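Example 3.2
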Amino acid sequence: MLTDKFFTIAQIGHDATLWILIILSIFSLAFIIERWVTLNKLSNQSKNVNKRIGQALLTNDLSDIETLNKDSLEGEAIACGLAHIKNHGSAGLPEIFETYTLNKKPFLEKYLNFLATVGSNAPFIGLLGTVFGIMDAFKEMAVSQGDASAVMIGISKALIATAFGLVVAIPAVVAYNHFQRKVKTLLQSVRSAGNICMSYSKNRSTGA
């Protein structure tokens, strides 16, 4: 019967969901570490560049942006802008920075969709494992002629899947939200650098 096939699936389903959650947790942890290192490095570079931009604004000497660190997102964006100004003038400069921002966004958001998917689906995978475990526990109770201790042990084991699903999901959700804020801040910083570059272009064209 079809019901018997479901019980057969339940026997292996609980362990299978646990292995799936273990694999997801390993990938999730690896991606969290990679994004933490990458985005923190870019954020530190951004702070240094923004500090220099702030000093240039205070001294009203925008020519200082020509010597910004090109390893930073802002410095690289401004370098692209300055090259465009040199070859084509200020026409189309806003589009250059918008294109640069759109081009960098996938790199900054790398692995974030995976973390979001794990965060939203790991609890359901754990719940599925718990359902499989409870099905198997009640089947074992029927075979053991009503031994309550057998079903209690089975249910307690089944609940491990739900707990593990939450353990995998919570760090993924927290990391996703944290990294999204960092990405938003970095992209906003690039747009600000673009505005500075456009101001520099206008001052240069007017001879100010």
